[in-house]
Amino acid sequence: MTTVKYLSEEFFRELERRAADQPERPGTDLDVQYVVLEHPEAGRWPYYFRIRSGRIVEARIGEVAEPSFTITASYPDSVKLQEGKMHPATGFMTGRLKVSGDRAKLLRLMPVFQSRAYQAVIEDLRAISVY
């Protein structure tokens, strides 16, 4: 079985590939910036998702020019999210995940991230990720 290092370029390519056939959700067009702090290799590790019609069409390391909103988390909390050991709502409510920017757009994205199809992609990615 192929493995990918969490938050590596290969990880994001695999996410794009696995998310390519997600169902469309017209009107859900967002650029989501993530910032992981305390990353073991770089300290601060930014990455982003471009979402068009509810599909992740681009996932890359780096900064997006005009994010709809930004989510910031520590590396350990980011790993817990990916492993399914922390629910995103818990992270937001406890302050372990911080959001800046348009929170209404985050709420618009929740049905996408909570869908069975998206969760299946995350489960598949989780199975091949190493940390």
The strand order across the widest sheet is 4-3-2-5-6
Write out the CATH superfamily name. SCP2 sterol-binding domain
Nearest-angstrom radius of gyration? 14 Å
CATH class: Alpha Beta
Mean pLDDT: 94
Shape: globular
For the largest beta-sheet, the strand count, sense and barrel status come to: 5 strands, mixed
CATH architecture: 2-Layer Sandwich
Name the beta content range.
Answer: 25-35%
CATH topology: Nonspecific Lipid-transfer Protein, Chain A
Helix share bin: 25-40%
Q: What is the count of distinct domains? A: 1
Q: Output the structural class.
A: alpha/beta
- How far is it from the N-terminal to the C-terminal residue, by CA? 16 Å
Total beta strands: 7
H-E string: EHEEEEHHEHHE
Provide the low-confidence segments as ranges.
none
Determine the number of helices (DSSP H or I, runs of at least 4 residues).
5
Can you tell me about this structure?
This protein has 131 residues and is α/β, with parallel strands linked by helices. The chain has a single domain, classed as SCP2 sterol-binding domain (Nonspecific Lipid-transfer Protein, Chain A, 2-Layer Sandwich), CATH 3.30.1050.10. 39% of the residues lie in helices and 32% in strands. It has helices spanning 9-19, 75-83, 88-94, 103-113, 116-128; strands at 4-5, 30-39, 43-52, 55-61, 69-74, 97-101, 129-130. The chain has a five-stranded mixed sheet. The protein has a two-stranded parallel ribbon with strand order 1-7. β2 (30-39) and β3 form a beta hairpin. α1 runs antiparallel to α5. The longest helix has 13 residues, at 116-128. It is globular, with a radius of gyration of 14 Å. The two termini are 16 Å apart. This is SCP2 domain-containing protein. InterPro entries: SCP2_sterol-bd_dom, SCP2_sterol-bd_dom_sf. Residues 42-114 form the SCP2 domain.
